[in-house]
Amino acid sequence: MTKFKGVIPPVVTPLNADFTVDYPSYTRVLEHLIEGGCHGVFVLGSTSEVIFHDDKTRREIIEHSAKVVNGRGACQEVVMSDPDLSKIPILTCWPQDGGHARA
Description:
The structure is a single chain. By secondary structure, the protein is of the alpha+beta class. It has one domain (23-102). Helices cover 27% and strands 15% of the residues. The protein has two helices and four strands. The chain has helices at residues 23-35, 55-69; strands at 40-43, 74-78, 90-93, 101-102. It has a four-stranded mixed beta sheet. Helix 1 (23-35) packs across helix 2. The longest helix is centred in the middle third of the chain and has 15 residues, at 55-69. It is globular and about 35 Å long.
């Protein structure tokens, strides 16, 4: 079992006026957290946004997050696997694993 340590805050996902993800702002948020000394980020877990995005958008957010973090810290994501929300696994990408996700 993985033991978590350090600061891994939930990250807000900024949106544009049309409710699409504002990736430039999101990148700045991620960079601010990592450069500020956080040991990782918890993606799609801040303001319940995980339930408001479709699978394609969630995957894009996760992929973008992993690309920006780029092994500088853990990158955790809430992953929806069940429409009734009974199963919400959390994937974690650790720098020592080469950034590959594992549940």
